[in-house]
Amino acid sequence: MPKKLLPERTADFIESMECLPVAEVPEGPEWTYELKLDGYRLEAVRTQKEITLYSRRRNILNKKFPYVAAALKGLPEGTVVDGELVALGKDGRPDFNMLQNFRSAEENITYYAFDILVHKNRDLTSLPLSERREILRTVIKPAKHVALSEVSNQTATEMLKFVRSHGLEGIIAKRSDSVYQAGLRTGVWSKHRINLGQEFVIGGYTPGTHGFDSLVIGFYQGKDLHYAARVRAGFVPATRRTVFEQIKGLEASKCPFINLPEKQAGRWGQGLTADKIKECVWLKPEAVARFDFLEWTGADHLRHTKFVAMRDDKDPRKVVREN
Q1: What does each C-alpha distance from 105 to 111, 260, 314 come to in angstroms?
Q2: Which of 197, 267, 276, 292 is the most buried (most CB within 10 A)?
């Protein structure tokens, strides 16, 4: 524990500090690197009575992952730990779809702790990350379902080479002197994604078999939701029914996208013109899903987009363009 006396703080949920998407990985002696893990952000809160697992939207996940809660019972009373819940496939790489099937994937699910915010009812958020990590190492004892997120001593260039050669998702860069800024995305924590895929907000759909034919998705710029694509690929009948069950109660009378309708369909036919939007059913922008795609167009639209999975742990208002 640091020599200076830290303020007291009751162990409770703390809003997650966010990573800023960047096109290039920041470099310099003040930067440290971790692998970007494709999973659920998870906060573990240990009070005197119990351990509670929170998603970033403050949903309690103990019933979904009781074995993770049990593995973290050894945390000191009055402690809050931040980390990522990940399912590893047979190839040793994170597999988000496996994580969705959490009941059958228990053996492969691990909680990777990367930060500690409160320790024995002392507030650590004003300490530099390097000091918080030292404390975290004394608190987290690697065991089944629990591990420390490793910090690499490689350069950004070496990390990028490693990530690409192993088909991993990307890199998280953090300043070693950064304090924990709850709920903020300032850039002292950054993320660089190698593959083209991210979360988008579902703002509407076109009706079809099993509920819908395509989803209408977008991302936020400031307070405004911008249309990015209509998505038909990546679904089987069972998936369509499951997704439709999650969105059908969100129907709204107005289009939530600020940039619709568009004047032209565009070269790739992704533009939603005044005629095309007549087919759409609009939704409150509350549902989030992960999508893979080939590229962004010059009009900030997506090409060859495919549905991957729903994300109920993501705040729609924090879904921005990442690539």
Answers
A1: 13, 41, 21
A2: 197
Residues 160 and 32 in one domain: yes
Give tens-digit pLDDT for 25-75.
999 999 999 999 989 999 999 999 999 999 999 999 999 999 999 999 999
Q: Name the residue range of residue 205's domain.
A: 197-318
What is the three-class DSSP state of 218? strand
Does one domain contain both 254 and 208?
yes
State how far the alpha carbon of 126 is from the alpha carbons of 2, 162, 293, in Å.
Answer: 11, 32, 39
Other beta carbons within 10 angstroms of residue 114's beta carbon come to: 21
pTM of the entire structure?
Answer: 0.81
- Rounded CA separation 181/127 (Å): 11
Instruction: Give Cβ neighbours of residue 243 (< 8 Å, ≥ 6 apart).
Output: 211, 212, 215, 235, 289, 307, 310
Answer whether residue 6 is part of any domain: no
